[in-house]
Design goal:
The protein has 2 helices and 11 strands; from the N terminus they run ββββββαβαββββ. The protein has helices at residues 69-82, 112-126, and strands at 2-3, 6-10, 15-19, 23-30, 34-40, 45-51, 91-96, 131-136, 142-147, 152-157, 161-164.
Length: 165
């Protein structure tokens, strides 16, 4: 599938992809999930992980490193390095982590979206990756389009339009 500015690579739930300057990494329908976007502007290499859970301990099935931030981030870094990215130049952005059903939670309950945001920030911090922008929380879903060549990230929402991250 092609986008206006390059080849669109769709990143599904509990998946990740790395792209080069001709690629647009896209993930659709982020609710409580988090999109972790890593970018090396100099090498024009980017990575996007659509993480589902804040911890591997919450997964009941097979081990999938893309499901959780603490395993997705090192895998993205490894795959990005293989195509020329340098860990010293990589920056991060986060999107998602919504509380889609906040009205149903008991007072004082930490929702899955918040837990995913915290786990993602911790994973980035543990690898020394600076977080330069984020669009997280609230109560609405998001779609992310990441143009690797220039690092442009568009966040789209039915209820909130499109914004640049």
């Amino acid at each position: 599938m092609s986008g206006r500015n390059g080849r669109e690579l769709i990143v599904r739930v509990a998946d990740l992809k790395v792209g080069g300057p001709e690629d647009v990494l896209v993930t659709i329908g982020l609710g409580s999930c988090i999109a972790i976007l890593l970018h090396d502007a100099t090498a024009q290499v980017g990575g996007l992980a659509h993480v589902l859970l804040p911890s591997p301990a919450l997964s009941r099935r097979e081990h999938n490193p893309a499901k959780c931030p603490q395993t997705a981030v090192p895998l993205l870094l490894e795959q990005m390095a293989r195509v020329g990215a340098s860990p010293r130049r990589i920056t991060a952005r986060l999107a998602g982590g919504a509380s889609m059903f906040a009205a149903l939670l008991a007072p004082g309950t930490v929702n899955m979206g918040e837990r995913n945001v915290v786990a993602s920030r911790n994973a980035l911090m543990s690898h020394g990756i600076p977080l330069v922008a984020q669009d997280v929380g609230a109560d609405y879903g998001r779609t992310v389009r990441f143009r690797v060549a220039n690092g442009r990230v568009d966040i789209e929402s039915v209820s909130h339009g499109t914004r640049l991250l």
